[in-house]
Amino acid sequence: MANKTAGPEIERLIKLLAKLPGLGPRSARKAALTLIKRRDDLMGPLAEALNVARETITICPECGNVDTVSPCSICQQPRRDQTMIVVVEEVGDLWALERAGVIKGRYHVLGGHLSPLDGIGPEDLNIGKLVERASKAEVSEVLLALNATVEGQSTMHYVKDLLANSGVKVSEMQKGVPIGGELDYLDEGTLAAAINSRRQI
Hints:
Blueprint: H1 8-18, H2 25-37, H3 39-56, E1 58-59, E2 66-67, E3 81-88, H4 91-100, E4 105-109, H5 127-134, E5 141-144, H6 150-162, E6 169-172, H7 188-196, E7 199-200
Parallel strand pairs: 3-4, 3-5, 5-6
Antiparallel strand pairs: 1-2, 6-7
Helix pairs in contact: 1-2, 4-7
């Protein structure tokens, strides 16, 4: 049985931090120690921010983005191009494209990708709402900005087939996105080049 080096409250903090992406047990311990050392200027404000976020954050019923208003701030922007829907896997991908500043259209977050091995099928993703949105008269293009992974590409082909008879142009990002690359980890210049050189599929 492993020796406990801290009280149960601290151990709980470490275990919770270790559940975050990119933080293993060692990194979680370092993060916990930093929070403990900076209780007044970091831990307190962070706890307050987390509590406010838990109470106020909502998922946009239109596009699937997360925000504190509904519909989200992006969907409420009147100058957005109504003719284009940009489809992404996760909210982090949406944020990455917004940072690149090249998207003028509206977004649609699928909430993941198809993965039969993990039991994730079409019914588990926000695909039905996408088909409904793409059928609106003002929509002329659906840009599939999905990750260049095996799962992302299989999801892209599935969605493309669903939209084949919709009358909208279906396109994908082109150069700049490496095989296996995830949008949230790419720089803004690469994303801009991939969007601007998109091709119809």
